[in-house]
Amino acid sequence: MKQIFICAVLFITAFAVNAQSFNVGTYNVRNDNSSDVGNMWQDRSPYIAKLVQYHDFDFFGTQEALPHQLEEMKAALPGYDYYGEGRDGNNQGEHSAIFYKTAKYKLLNKGDFWLSATPDVPSKSWDAPCCNRICTWVELQDIESGKTFFAFSAHYDYEKDYARNESSKLVLAKIKEIAGDNSVMFMGDLNGGLNSSWARLINESKVLRNTYYDVEKPYANNSSYNAWGKPLGQLDDLDRSIISNNEILDHIYFSKHFKTNRWGMLTDTYNIGKFPSDHFPVLVNAEWVK
């Protein structure tokens, strides 16, 4: 009888510990682009939803999705909601929206700022010639425990180092302004690997750390950018370098309030070698530091 009681206690304890963990992801889902012949959004979007459901994302930051993509993802993901403004304002253009499970998390607050010298209005990133860039944030409450945290999602410029370095400086400043010393996560496609100066700037800030370094064996067998699986000979110099060097462009950072259990890049495909996006999502299993 005593042995049965001990086993029951151990089982309940193990379940309780497991129940306290959560899965957080970052996923550049690629915009709905007519040039992606063979990889059109309408063909791959169901598999993005299936991937999220199977791997049981509790919440995740997205990059590049247009308004109709976000709505289609929400419809295909019952039990999830999202928040995010468009980078061109008035819900227009690409988003860095954040999805979360509504049964598990309550949205307390939300907002956005632009990665630029004028962060309160839609604007380009310093010397970057391409596009407006935005960072979205939410304050969520874990309904069961009552604990609250802030999550930020962003997509950096892909051309200019100065803009990317300044983006990291701004993100850190805004996190301090918005979240203070509270628990924070930052997720995003930073268009730079682990050793890029803008990724290191965040990791060395003593505010956030890159979860990749938290685990002894991160599951990272290749670059988080896949270029739709094209042969290296068909790629430009930049893409070839990224893939050849297994650069991780997609990152998840934690404040001191969280512990990383597992870090993995999800290389799921469909229809034998087709990719749901030209980026692989990164998924981290984590828990609160007690």
From TrEMBL:
GO terms for molecular function: 3'-5'-RNA exonuclease activity; endonuclease activity. Residues 25-279 form the Endonuclease/exonuclease/phosphatase domain. Gene3D superfamilies: Endonuclease/exonuclease/phosphatase. InterPro entries: CCR4/nocturin_mRNA_transcr, Endo/exonu/phosph_ase_sf, Endo/exonuclease/phosphatase. Residues 1-19 form the signal peptide. It comes from the Bacteria. The keyword ATP-binding does not apply. Keywords: Endonuclease, Exonuclease, Hydrolase, Nuclease, Signal. This is Endonuclease/exonuclease/phosphatase family metal-dependent hydrolase. It comes from Dysgonomonas alginatilytica. The lineage of its organism: Bacteria, Pseudomonadati, Bacteroidota, Bacteroidia, Bacteroidales.
